Amino acid sequence: MHAPDDALPSTPDDAPAGWSDPDRLRSAAARHLWPHFTPADQSARGDLPVFVRGEGVELWDADGKRWLDGLAALFTVQVGHGRRDLLQKAVDRAGDLAYFPLWGAANAPAVELAERLAHLAPGDLDRVFFGTGGGDSVEAAWKLARSYFAAIGKPRKYKVLSRVGAYHGTSLGALSITGMTGIRHMYEPLVPGAVKVPSTNLYRAPVHADDPVAFGAWAADQVEATILAEGPDTVAAIFLEPVQNAGGSLLPPPGYLQRVREICDRHDVLLVSDETICGFGRTGAMFGCERFDVVPDMITCAKGLTSGYAVLSAVIASERIFEAFRAGGGQFVHGNTWGGHPVAAATALANLDLFDELGLVEHVAATEGAFGDAMRGLGDLELVGDVRGVGHFWTVEVVADRATRRPIVADADGRHVADVIRAAVLDAGLHCRVFGSGSSVIQLCPPLISDQGVFDEIEQVLRAALEKGAAAC
Ligand SMILES: Cc1ncc(COP(=O)(O)O)c(C=O)c1O
Asked: How remote is the CA of residue 302 from the centroid of ligand 1, in Å?
């Protein structure tokens, strides 16, 4: 399935002049490009890979090296690379109107996409507010929660809860919700009122590590305890990913999300499912909240909405929230130029058409077991402490010592071993996240068209890399 016949990959022949000259590209990147979350000396050295072409699950860099995309670029390219048919359909659909904003008006692709997303989303999540990225939709959802409570006469409800270690974006509001201390501290003081609750990392659970149900109940009860400590009349929302990415595919323990839902209902707190990664098939359902059987009050989504072929995000909100603004004669005072751009919306529509044509969500559900088996097969290696995941969203946790679960990157020796493993994965041309943000996990999140051949190749590359790492211990 991973190399669709009708995909029309770009070829070196039709690449713009200069794209085929790796030295020129690298030196221009070294001099002028400022890459994201990248050490400045590394980008200035000019040895970052520069990708020029993709097809299905494969990528090629400017040197002609072939890579397997084990991360859907950045948890994004659900339908795979090189789908010129998708782009063509989007251009055909949007071509009559290159741009019109959603300020006091609408454009046709945005309307059509809003209707489609409302049909796809669970419950009464029928109102779609478009934006430009995952963090942008998180930012909007927090403002929306605050505005909603102001609209219904509860303006003191402004605080937001989220989990320790979770990533929700980098603008100052979204960064305040983000629970990764390493990327927050240099920007403090952040937006007041963002409070953290424990994560659901069962492998590193502080209590009930051998009982997922009891651990889930404990973690949910921490949410309630935090709401009570802060004062329920001050808490507006909690942001959770159905499966938390940062820390490595942290699954919700059985009953956890349902208990959080009950707690939210009890204290009039909005439940926001951040589906920037989990949305659009990643977990084997269209939305992660469906996979785990909970209906939130809002979904934030981005990435897979367009499979990365255009820039777009959305907050899909309960009709109840919209109704509060309508009934009060008010408005949500928020917006931007690009949210709901017609070309991006048309791209999302073409992407969702392709989901249907390929039966992509069903394919993920059907192949989840095979992916999991391939990753669990690595469990015989001495450095592998845990393998966990769902759908096409898997993590291998690497430890220096299985008995104590000591993370591989925790000390000077660990860092050396981590470097050996990372280098082996890169040399083999597997694009995935290896020990991101100093964590001890290898994260895998390939395009959703991946099949047994992809799972096996990932397993082989990781096996060889982990064996090298073990030899370096
Ligand atoms: C759960 C989650 N929320 C928000 C974001 C931020 O998305 P963006 O980079 O599009 O702003 C990300 C990015 O990976 C994410 O994983």
From this structure: 8
Mutate to test the pocket of ligand 1, among 71, 137, 138 (most ligand atoms within 8 A of CB): 138
Same domain? 404 vs 416: yes
Could you say which of 358, 375, 394 is where a domain stops? 358
The answer on pLDDT for 221 being more than 90 is yes
Q: Could you tell me how many residues make up the chain? A: 473
User: Which residue, among 316, 315, 163, 175, has the nearest Cα to 253 in the 3D structure?
Assistant: 163
Q: What is the distance in A from the centroid of ligand 1 to the CA of 279? A: 11
Q: How far is the centre of ligand 1, averaged over its atoms, from the C-alpha of 5 (Å)?
A: 31
Whether the pLDDT of residue 4 is over 50: the answer is: no
What mean pLDDT do residues 151-166 have? 98
Q: What value does the mean pLDDT take over residues 186-203?
A: 97
Strands (E), 20-124: 51-55, 58-61, 66-69
> What per-residue confidence (pLDDT) applies to 1?
57
How many C-beta atoms lie closer than 10 Å to residue 201's C-beta?
Answer: 22
Output the residue whose Cα is nearest ligand 1's atom 4. Answer: 168
Q: In this structure, what CATH number is given to the domain that contains residue 428?
A: 3.90.1150.10
Q: Ligand 1 atom 3: the closest Cα is on which residue?
A: 168
Which of 28-32, 128-132, 365-369, 436-440 is predicted least confidently? 436-440
Q: How many domains does the chain have?
A: 2
For residue 31, the number of C-alpha atoms closer than 13 Å in the C-beta half-sphere is: 6
What domain range is 101 assigned to?
A: 87-358
172, 177, 277, 312, best to mutate for ligand 1 pocket (most atoms within 8 Å of CB)? 277
pLDDT recorded at residue 414: 84
Confidence (pLDDT) at 438:
83
Tokens 């670029």 label which residue? 73
State in Å: Cα 198 to ligand 1 middle: 20
Residues 166 and 246 in one domain: yes
Whether residue 134 sits in one domain with residue 49: no
The percent helix, strand, coil of the chain (3-state, each to 5) is: 45, 15, 40
